[in-house]
UniProtKB/TrEMBL annotation:
Name under which the protein is recorded: N-acetyltransferase ECO1
Family the UniProt entry places it in: Belongs to the acetyltransferase family. ECO subfamily.
Start-end of Low complexity biased regions: 28-37
Lineage: Eukaryota, Fungi, Dikarya, Basidiomycota, Agaricomycotina
A GO biological-process term: mitotic sister chromatid cohesion
GO MF annotations in UniProt: protein-lysine-acetyltransferase activity; zinc ion binding
Length: 283
């Protein structure tokens, strides 16, 4: 009787398990070797300067952040003051204010009055002056005056009253302070002089000259510029800053501090040809 061969079939579950293990072997072999580093994820940054949130106002020159309520409110207030000036009420001049010119008329259509007061005044007038000084320094990119300088300084304000307005507007402000010396600005032909001294971008003679009055700040809102207001305030300061001693700007009795380009033109129109260093030349 021939031999009978018996074939025992394996369960299907065992077959699947073996097949699974067979597939895992190559992966396990790879895991035993050195692991390949994953490629770095690169991030590309695009700078869109046309969408920069910082904006410089062409009207007032202030740089502020768009979309920030506090910045936009600050810019709105500052820009309005640069264009139209701050208001001025009669309650702000109850004490310590001198009327210099009750009927100032520097050019056709401009009528107002000029008053003066101490730069270190207190009360409501002092609070308003602090706001005026902050505005002036921001526009002129100038540092605040020291307390010593404020004590030696008088403020001259040109006030106008617009139609249908209940309060006057400050259409111009000039600060005048007692100083001791200044330097004469050299003509362009003398700037090659070996002894010339560069002061605030101007070439000056090196010898200090006696000078009684200095002008550290001049500001006129844009609405009132080129109407003779700054010149009227300079003349008022020359007449009254030193009691009983009127001064002539054209004879070297006045000097400017840190003149800007427009300040340099004002110096020329007033006949002032001297500059001085703030604080250093105070009397």
């Amino acid at each position: 009787m021939p031999a009978t061969r018996t074939y025992a079939s394996r369960p299907k579950t065992a077959q699947r398990t073996d097949a699974s293990q067979a597939r895992k072997k190559p992966a396990q072999a790879k895991a035993g070797g050195a692991a390949k580093p994953k490629p770095a994820v690169l991030t590309q940054l695009h700078l869109a300067f046309d969408n920069c949130p910082l904006k410089a106002c062409k009207t007032c020159g202030l740089t502020y952040t768009r979309g920030v309520p506090e910045d936009e409110a600050l810019h709105k207030t500052h820009c309005a003051r640069v264009q139209r000036g701050l208001d001025w009420g009669r309650d702000e001049e109850k004490t310590g204010v001198q009327l210099v010119d009750a009927a100032a008329n520097p050019s056709p259509g401009i009528h107002g009055r000029i008053i003066s007061l101490r730069a270190d005044a207190g009360g409501k007038a002092g609070a308003k002056l602090a706001t005026v000084f902050d505005l002036m320094n921001t526009v002129l990119a100038a540092p605040p005056l020291s307390q010593t300088a404020l004590k030696a300084t008088k403020v001259y304000l040109f006030l106008v009253k617009p139609k249908n307005a209940s309060r006057e507007h400050i259409a111009g402000c000039v600060l005048a302070q007692r100083i001791s010396t200044s330097l004469a600005v050299l003509p362009t032909s003398d700037t090659n002089n070996a002894g010339a001294k560069l002061v605030h971008g101007l070439y000056c003679a090196p010898e200090p000259l006696p000078t009684p009055l200095g002008i550290p700040r001049v500001f006129v809102p844009t609405t009132y510029r080129r109407k003779g207001i700054a010149r009227a305030l300079i003349d008022a300061a020359a007449r009254s800053a030193i009691h009983g001693c009127p001064l002539d700007p054209r004879t070297g009795q006045l000097a400017f501090s840190q003149p800007t380009d427009s300040g340099r033109r004002l110096m020329d129109s007033c006949g002032v040809q001297r500059v001085y260093e703030e604080d250093d030349d105070l009397q």
